Amino acid sequence: MGFFGRKTVAALVAGFSLLIAGCTASTGGESASKPSDKAGGGSPVTVGMTYIPNVQFAPAYVADKEGLFTAEGVAAKLRHHGTDEGLFTALLAGEEDVVIASADEMLQARAQGMDLISVGQYYQKYPTKIMVKDDSAIRSVADLKGKKVGLPGEFGSNWFGLLAALKDSGMTRADIDVQSIGFTQLAALKSDKVDAVVGFSNNDGVQFELADVPVREIDLAKTGEPPLVGMNIVTTSQFAKNHADALKHTLQALSKGMQVCVDDPARAVDITKSYDQNLTSDEALASTKATLEATNKLFAPAGKVDFTQDVDQWKRMNDFLSQIEGVLGSKVDVTEAVTNEYLEQ
Q: Which residue range or ranges hold the SsuA/THI5-like domain (predicted)?
């Protein structure tokens, strides 16, 4: 991979902000959702979430609404970022204590010297897939040779996923015709502007299904997982050191909230309505339910939530991203950047 110059973390996070379709972004520093402002006893912890309220953050909404944070002795406040705010700006400024973010963005920020550590795995599976129409002759990554492949641009998780898939099949960017199509995967594939698209299984895959456009998803790796890690839970080493108990209990509450999402999606969607003011129509609710069901496959593929991180997988991602021009610059010491010590064993 490595075919673009250095991009700042701030630029790369724009891709994540558009992961979700059908929502309107907030422009202020606080979300247009209904964040918790619970006061009273317990350790104060502000949980940061990116940009716009969405059901992918339902574990936090459930933990807040159902009193799971309170039961763990945490006085939690949920905070969504504004679109003009850096992903880790509030965390580093002490305005947030943990933030849910993609692992590749965290690793890039760490490589730039930011004091960040990953303390829990939010997605057990990497969400990116290659998608083709169901009647397409393309059935493997190797079949993409000479084909037009659309994705938002040469940055972020979709781009890293595509390059990982090419490497796994012994191919390079030169073997395909890369098309930067913005966040228009549905329209581009439906109209045959491209032969395949790269997107998120819990966003683009859902939108194809809701639009009644049958697609087939192609895994990035022929066997196992690609050398990438999905969403994770990030804090600073200073907060973790000074507030270890609060961090442990915050993770426990989020884990319990996520298990509710997996076990009772309808209940989680109903709770999400209190935090996402866009969920007012039957169509929006149907889309949200479908999105959560797809996201549950990333939360807990086997049905059991587990925030434990695979440090070896992080090392593989570190090695992979370090080979891409302008992404890391140099490798990160993963043993200092990733820890499971704050998870209940």
A: 54-268
The predicted pLDDT at position 330 comes to 81
Q: What's the rounded Cα separation, in Å, for the pair 65 and 68?
A: 8
Reference 299, options 89, 60, 18; nearest CA is: 60
Tens-place pLDDT, residues 121-149: 999 999 999 999 999 999 999 999 999 99
Question: Cα–Cα distance between 11 and 13 in angstroms, integer?
Answer: 6
162-173 pLDDT per residue, tens: 999 999 999 999
Partners of 284 in the beta sheet?
none
